[in-house]
Every structure is written in C-alpha cells, then in structure tokens.
Design a protein that fits this description.
five-stranded mixed beta sheet, two-stranded antiparallel sheet, 2 domains
C-alpha cells in the first residue's frame, strides 16, 4: 500500500497543495454539487480569492474551453452569494494533455497553470507572484504513508481549530450590555411617567438643535434614551434586543458600546442639522448604527451569512429607511446618520481575525472625517 501511494505522484502533489492552501493560507473548501475530480478552495481575504486544483485529464482545446466556461458560470454564483464584484481565480491543472495548445491565460481574472510536478510550480511566474512561498512550503521529510498521515493530520487539526473559532463566535451568549441598555430606556420612560415629570424630562433632555448649540451637548446622548409613546419604546427595545444581542456577541461588549454611542451621537448630529428648531427623541439612530455594524460584520463572514444579509438584514434596513421617508413624524436623518456612523466605526474597530491593521487605520480616518463634517454642518452650516 505504501509503495502505491509513493508512486501516485498526482495524489502526492494534490495533498501538498491542499496542505499549503488550507493550513498556510487559510483557504476553505467550497462544496459544489456535480463537480468531480477538482477541488475548489476560497479565501475572500486573499487577492486570489478562489483556487481550483483540477486532477481531471484535459486532453484537448475543446475540453479546456468547456472547463473555462463551467468555471466562469460557477464563479458568477459565488459572486452573488458572497457579494463580491471581482473574484480572481487560479486553476491549477495537474493532468493537462499536450493537445491543449490554446493560450491558458487569455482572461486575467482566470489564471490557468499547467503543473506536472513541483518543478513547474517553481517555474510559474503566476504562482511566484501570488504565492511566492508555495514552492518552499512543499518540501517534506516524510514519504509515502507518513507524508499522507502528516498532511491529513495537519489539515484536520486546522479545520478543527477553525470550527472551534466559529463555534465560539456564533454560539448563543447572554447579552448583558444589551439588557442594560434596554433597562435604561425603559426606566427613563416609565419613571418620569409615574412621577408626572414626563414632559419636563423630554424638554430637558431631547435632541434640540438650538439648545445643543448653546452648550447642552449631553442632549446628543440623552435624547437617544427618550421615547414618545409605549409603542415607540416597545419597537425600539425589541429591535435593540434582536440586533444588539447579535452585535454584542459578534463584536464584543466594549466594541458594542462604542458602536452604540457613536451611532447615537452621529444620528443626533444629523437630526439637529435638518430639524431646525424641532426636537427629536428615540434610540433609532443607535439601532440603525447596530444594523450598519451587522452589515459590516456580515460582509466579512458572507460565506456563512451571505444569504441572511441578502434576504433579511439589507432588506430590513432599506424598508425602514423608505418607511421613514413615507411616514410623518419619523426622524429619518437620525436613522441615516446612525447607519453611516455604525458602518464607519465598525470598520475602525475591526472584526477579530478578519480586519487588517491597514483597514482599521482607514476606518479611523474615515470616521474622523465623517465626524468633523457632520459636526461642521450641525454647528456651523445649519446654525
């Protein structure tokens, strides 16, 4: 049995490639129905987002053309599922016949490489450009059964660690901070109502442009904890429970609080910009910020949440924004300010193990520019 494995050079090469892309580059297998003799791997954080390892024998130009056609069709489906506009694909052919005379790389988005052995990997300019360490990572001291045991063991351990991280990320947690915020909202509605101070509290703490410009900056936050009716607070607290508990679980308690309050302030600032002498109240700006954070988080985990983003989260955001422009008395500018603020501050804070330091830096710069702009229009332009 060991001799058979050692002589099967194609299987050995396939296993080495899999070991590299999965354990070194964090690619994940893509499950495709009806696709045989090829392995699809994806890592949306890499420039080359999809890698195909094709062991099927490609014996002429016609079969190669059909393979390219099939690949492009599958990539279109992956784009829709993952909200990706551009996907660069590298197809590594392990058994291509000499009758294939067609130029392999007519499409720059679909890189095709003919690899007979490890020497071809060293010679390939495309591999050197995209995966410069691939050749050096394919050197093993083990042979035969020992090599297969090592490679499969490493891949299984890597997959186990990834599964453990995903389980920790998506498992249900008690959202203590979300419950606390809901409690504060409820208390600030019920207690003034019982004490007969409801209107006084609204007048003193609501988002009111002239008062904020006069120095009562606390209104930018306190207004986000006040509500005008039992239905107003019920729907906002319900939305906070559903969305807030998810963001608190996915992003962590500290990041959740930063997103919530930053979005609330951005929503209040944009609200006072367009409200004139009017007043506004409600947690909607902060909640829309949490929706923005959920969209940002879902984008990085779109392999797992792509369908939820497309069928639920984004339609809910759009529906509520449209509804805000249709229904009277809805402070939609507060919603928009919170939504933009939530997305920008989420980019600045980053998603664990996903967002790079460079992306976080850009996020902080964008959040700062947005903050300066919205403060200017709220305090200077619209004053």
């Amino acid at each position: 049995m060991e001799t058979e494995i050692m002589l099967d050079d194609k299987n050995v090469l396939t296993m080495k490639l899999l070991h590299y892309f999965i354990t070194e580059k964090n690619y994940n297998p893509i499950i495709l129905q009806g696709v045989e003799n090829e392995i699809w791997l994806e890592n949306l954080d890499e420039d080359c987002k999809v890698v195909r390892i094709v062991s099927n024998y490609i014996h002429n130009n016609e079969q190669f053309n059909f393979d390219v056609f099939k690949t492009k069709r599958i990539i279109k489906k992956i784009k829709k599922k993952t909200f990706s506009f551009n996907i660069n694909v590298m197809s590594i052919f392990l058994d291509m016949g000499e009758n294939v005379t067609k130029e392999l790389n007519e499409d720059p988005k679909l890189m095709c490489i003919n690899v007979k052995d490890e020497t071809d990997i060293k010679k390939s300019d495309l591999i050197k450009k995209n995966f410069p360490d691939l050749s050096s990572k394919m050197k093993y001291s083990e042979k035969g059964v020992e090599l297969f045991a090592k490679i499969t063991g490493d891949i299984n351990e890597h997959n186990r660690q990834d599964a453990s991280k995903l389980e920790q990320l998506f498992k249900s947690k008690v959202p203590y901070v979300t419950y606390f915020l809901i409690a504060v909202n409820v208390i600030l509605y019920i207690v003034p109502l019982i004490l007969g101070q409801y209107q006084e509290v609204l007048n003193m703490w609501c988002v009111h442009g002239p008062s904020i410009r006069a120095g009562q900056y606390y209104r930018l936050i306190t207004g986000a904890f006040l509500h005008g009716s039992i239905w107003h607070i019920f729907f906002n607290c319900y939305a906070l429970k559903i969305i807030g508990s998810q963001i608190e679980s996915f992003m962590g308690k500290t990041k959740f609080l930063i997103i919530y309050f930053y979005s609330a302030i951005m929503g209040s600032l944009l609200s006072m910009t367009f409200a004139g002498d009017g007043a506004s109240i409600g947690a909607s700006g902060a909640i829309f910020g949490l929706m923005g954070a959920l969209i940002y988080f879902g984008y990085y985990y779109r392999v797992y949440l792509g369908n939820v983003l497309k069928s639920q989260i984004i339609p809910i955001v759009i529906f509520n924004l449209v509804l805000g422009f249709i229904l009277p008395g809805v402070d939609n500018f507060g919603h928009i300010g919170g939504l933009i603020g939530g997305i920008l501050i989420s980019r600045a804070l980053g998603v664990k193990d996903k967002t790079t330091t460079f992306e976080k830096g850009n996020g902080w710069i964008m959040a700062l520019i947005f903050t300066i702009f919205i403060v200017y229009v709220a305090f200077v332009y619209s004053a």
